[in-house]
Amino acid sequence: MVGKRVRFKTTHPTEFVDITDRLRDEVKRAGLRIGRIHIQSLHTTLGIAINENEPLLLHDFEALLERLAPAGAGYQHDDFARRFDIAEDEPENGHAHCRQLLLTGFSTVLVEDGELVLGRWQSVFAVELDGPRDRQLAVQLDGEFSAPRPKGAGDAELVELELSRQLLVDPEPVSAPMRRLVEAGSKRLRPTLVQLTAGIGPRTEPLRAASLAAAVELLHNATLVHDDYVDESTHRRGRPTVAAAEGPERAVAVGDYYFAKATRLIAEIGNRSVTSTIAEALEAICASQIDDVALRGAFPGDHDSYLRVVRGKTAALFAAACASGALLSEASPEIVDALRRYGDLVGVAFQMADDMVDFSSSSGKPVGLDIRQRVLSLPLIYAAEDREVGPEVRRLLAGALGDDEVSRVAALVAGSGALERVRAEAQALVEEAVHELETIELDGLRPILISLARSAVDRNA
Amino acid sequence: MRERGAETATTQMGRMGAEDPSRGSGRDHTVTHELDRIESLWEEGLSDAYRSYLDAVSGFDSADQPRLALAAALIEVGVRLQGLGGRAAPPPTLLMGDLCLARSSRLLADAAPQPVQVAFARAIEEMSSAAASERPAPHTRELLLRAFEAR
């Protein structure tokens, strides 16, 4: 069973809105092979009808409704003096309610071989009786579905193409190091979130979504180029960092170039809400980077400071990716807000999981790199607070960190229960993120967003 | 590297040109609001840069003018802080420069017409591309003043 809402605007007092193609699209998108599509009006002055879409006939229907229930014919419903609890903008629309009673508020259309079962001249109409208004229909699809094509499959290729296209036109001194970083492999979580959420609202445009997703990925990588210089990291994704390979001057320039390019690509999309959302996230990232470096003086820090930094440094772009995709698709403010909260929670959980990787010998990264670089890390914070191992952890972290000290700290963290505590906390955040999805209409995307949230903390998945 | 003092940013800015204290007053309340975390930069060159862009924004909506002038000033100061086109700044100073650019981007998103947003981004692309190519740096203020003409 797939449920969703179909939203549209009407422009006339009485209007026959042909929704047949919208329903066909829903059947195709859901992959319904055989079954039923149920349509239900969510309004008392919006009817449903199945008939012929012939303009003169529609005029006849309109005239018939006018004869049967003429406007202004002295309906008791319009006598506001006799009614209670009247809204300030209550219209005189007794005729519209009566007309709706002559129609119906729901309909079921059968589906066979993935197509609506309709006669040659049949179309499905939502009949506006008191327009113009914003309207919505509840739609449920029920039956046998074809094996689901993973949502977003194909979309990921669009992002890769867009990234390649953008890097191809850039000057070599900036594009070469960025290409190495982008092609070194990343989970592409942020662009995936953009693309998924860009499919939620009524305006779904895969190419615009891919442009936004690619720009968000470039922006993320631009911040990494500067991060690596700040952290003195020599390698990222198994390859030398830009700062290590080409010097800090080049790293500054490459980071700036792709910061600017990404913001330009986003501005060119032409959606001010999207531009502002990403710009606010970028500001939060930069502010948190400053906090992060400042906190290294009090390494390993505390839980509150950790959360404050991670919310800006990591989660802000996750949240912005989710919100901007939804904004691009013109999803409702409730959906945008819920997805923003979902992204924030997943982003924090993701960072916690990333912290744990530093203590895993099977991750492919050297164990204890975060310890050596004195990077903010929740397992370290918990181990430093631990009654048994805490004093030794704090003593070691306060001194010079050679190989022996790093190994000892890593062993103390692993033996302290800190990793289990962080894992539980990350999982709780993921469940909180999943909870955010429960109250909003997601056009069938809920399972994949849940799966993505859970995979963010399960690095073995 | 982390042992370098957080005050480096301020020191670096101090070399950018002293501010006449008598000119530090009278800034728009919008500007004051936007100086969170970068307040120290105002007296160390940001205010001069800001004032130099006020004429260029006179054709914009009056409510947007302070934000637009500040956005340009933040880019000018930000890239200078970072050491773009010269010797890379130490990390704390670089991060302060990054924050200037990010805040500028947000101000432009809020207050600038789309063509101006695009023109400012292109100006930074041009500066950073020149820096990466070790070509002579274009004049920042001229580039940014030209960006205002894109509306």
Give a brief outline of the structure.
The complex is a heterodimer of chains A (461) and B (151). Chain A contains 18 helices and 10 strands. By secondary structure, chain A is of the alpha+beta class.
Write the layout of secondary structure elements.
The complex is a heterodimer of chains A (461) and B (151).
Chain A: E1 2-9, E2 15-18, H1 20-30, E3 32-41, E4 46-51, H2 55-68, H3 94-102, E5 106-112, E6 115-116, E7 123-128, E8 134-145, H4 155-168, H5 172-183, H6 189-197, H7 206-231, E9 235-236, E10 239-240, H8 242-246, H9 248-269, H10 272-295, H11 303-328, H12 333-357, H13 369-372, H14 378-385, H15 390-398, H16 403-416, H17 418-436, H18 446-457
Antiparallel strand pairs in A: 1-8, 2-7, 3-5, 3-8, 4-7, 5-6, 9-10
Helix pairs in contact in A: 4-5, 4-7, 5-9, 6-7, 6-11, 7-9, 7-10, 7-11, 9-10, 10-11, 11-12, 12-17, 12-18, 14-15, 14-16, 14-17, 15-16, 17-18
Chain B: H1 8-14, H2 29-33, H3 39-54, H4 65-82, H5 91-111, H6 114-132, H7 140-148
Helix pairs in contact in B: 1-5, 3-4, 4-5, 6-7
Radius of gyration of chain B: 15 Å
Number of helices of chain A: 18
What is the rounded Rg of chain A? 28 Å
Percent of residues of chain A in helical segments? 55-70%
Output mean pLDDT of chain B: 86
SSE run of chain A = EEHEEHHEEEEHHHHEEHHHHHHHHHHH
Number of beta-strand segments of chain B: 0
CATH architecture of the largest domain in chain A: Orthogonal Bundle
Strand percentage of chain A lies at: 5-15%
Overall description:
- The complex is a heterodimer of chains A (461) and B (151).
- With 461 residues, chain A is α+β, with helices and mostly antiparallel strands.
- Chain A has helices spanning 20-30, 55-68, 94-102, 155-168, 172-183, 189-197, 206-231, 242-246, 248-269, 272-295, 303-328, 333-357, 369-372, 378-385, 390-398, 403-416, 418-436, 446-457, and strands spanning 2-9, 15-18, 32-41, 46-51, 106-112, 115-116, 123-128, 134-145, 235-236, 239-240.
- A five-stranded antiparallel β-sheet of chain A has the order 1-8-3-5-6, with helices on one face.
- In chain A, a hairpin with a 2-residue loop joins strand 5 and strand 6 (115-116).
- In chain A, helix 7 packs antiparallel against helix 9 (248-269) and helix 14 crosses helix 16.
- The two termini of chain A are 27 Å apart.
- With 151 residues, chain B is an all-alpha fold.
- Chain B is 63% helix and 0% strand.
- Chain B is built from seven helices and no strands.
- Residues 1-25 of chain B have low confidence and may be disordered.
- The A-B interface holds A 170-171, 173-174, 226, 229-230, 232, 247-257, 259-261, 263-264, 267-268, 270, 272, 275-276, 278-280, 282-283, 285-287, 289-290, 293-294, 296, 374 and B 1-2, 6, 37, 79, 82-89, 91-92, 94-96, 98-99, 101-103, 105-106, 108-110, 114, 117-118, 121-125, 127-129, 131-134.
